[in-house]
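ligand=adenosine-5'-triphosphate
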Amino acid sequence: MLEITGIDVFHGDLQAVWDVSLIIEGKGITTLIGSNGSGKSTVLATIAGLLKPVRGSISFDGVRIDTLPAHKIVDAGIAMVPEGRRLFREMTVMDNLEMGAITKRARQMKNETMAWIFDVFPILKERARQRADTLSGGEQQMLAIGRSLMSQPRLLLVDELSLGLAPVVVQKISQTLDEINKTKGIGIFLVEQNVVMALELAETGHIIENGRIVGTGKASELLASDQVRQAYLGMEGE
Amino acid sequence: MEFAQYITYGVINGSLYALVAIGLALIMGIMGIFNIAQGSLAMIAAYGSVLFFQHMKIDPFVSLALTLPGMFLVGVFMYLTMFMSMNKFDPGQKLRNSMLVSFGLVLIMETLATILWTANERTVTTAYSGTVMALGDLRIPYTGIATIILAIVVIFGLHFFLKHTTFGKSIWAVSQDHDCAMLMGINVKRTTLVAFGLGIALSAFAGAVVSLHTVSPAVGIDWTNKALILIVLAGVGSINGILFAGLLLGIVEALGVYLVGVHYTGVVGLLIFIIVLMLRPQGLFVRKAGV
Ligand SMILES: Nc1ncnc2c1ncn2[C@@H]1O[C@H](COP(=O)(O)OP(=O)(O)OP(=O)(O)O)[C@@H](O)[C@H]1O
Ligand SMILES: [Mg+2]
């Protein structure tokens, strides 16, 4: 279980997140939705250790992690699929996967994990020796997910799964994430602008606006709520 | 002297240029740090080789076992005290600041070397210095053969290390995306520290070879000049390209000597430098950005 307690986070002098508290259940799928610039990526980057909260704390399965450097947080069992995928473009698919398994624990299981990833995303096996930047958008997202899974995380953070992808591709990848969650018991914390997809996939949802949490509930109930329908779904028609 | 003899010397000189440039290329390509002091570090390493030979009769190629780790530690010290704090700057600012700081280092090292060892030229005279292999009319100094082999082994070895070992690849990953490398669990601080140390340690190879020719405190900046030409020829980020660029410069200079005389060597080098900058500013050996 990931427990975020009252964090304030800044980008330089600019505060982006105010007093955010969240509880993310270990085994489920949780989502954080919000519009452009609302602070979703900031929250994720803080969990991953790229940003440090000025106030508040974050703990994972009872261990405080906000004081750890980012690479130790990976070691502790949290991996992140960054917004925009951020692949090592000059490297092959295989090398990208290898970079995901850099911690000592992950390195020992590298071959088994890679075999599993190739099982989940067979296209990556076909493309194993190609440079990452020759892949299509969907394949790149699969590689980004596979690369983060290489560290054998217990919790996977995903920033904007749907970014720049066709609806059918999003559908397919979100289904795969669901399977990974159900079969492997890897918890997933998904951050999305695509509100419908996110709330359909997740069990629990949180809403962030201007750096503050303004709503929390069962995903299915949020999807049906006036708050979400007016603020997010209503906007789509405009 | 015959034409082929000139070319042979060109190849030998070019290999030496490549050995000096490779550390600079690594540090610039991987970290965006412009270390003008690379040639001066090779000069310091060369004095190390000279001193080990004078006082302990250790051959320069054998004393690499001491000068390599020595220069590595110098690199670690330089990084921790001067360059690490530049990571918070944007790339352009980092390049400019590192250039200024390392230019200061050039002056310090040159002065220090003059105080410690005087401005006179020094050289290591081994049993094989001056001996040559005769191939028909062609005479190839054994030290020259060693230089060529060393350049090939070091540069292809470095290329292999970066592309085919896990640690090498993690250095490469950090250079492509610093934050994302952290997200993968790479200890970015330690990785960059070691990579910088490695880049400086490479100057020991150049130093060993230089000590067999002549070394004086002022040669440092000359070597850096050659290294910069090589980086422009090869393209920033190209590792193997450095060797080919070195050979190209060495051979073109040799042709210059053959055709117009020895006084124009520097001019010939700058000429191809300018031509490449005009026609192919990304470098001759870079397809896209890549190592
Ligand atoms: N590196 C940065 N430097 C300064 N301000 C930043 C930086 N990154 C984000 N911000 C600001 O912090 C706020 C939150 O940004 P954040 O990226 O967390 O939002 P987001 O919800 O992920 O948005 P998006 O949906 O566009 O990805 C925004 O106002 C943004 O302008
Ligand atoms: Mg974002």
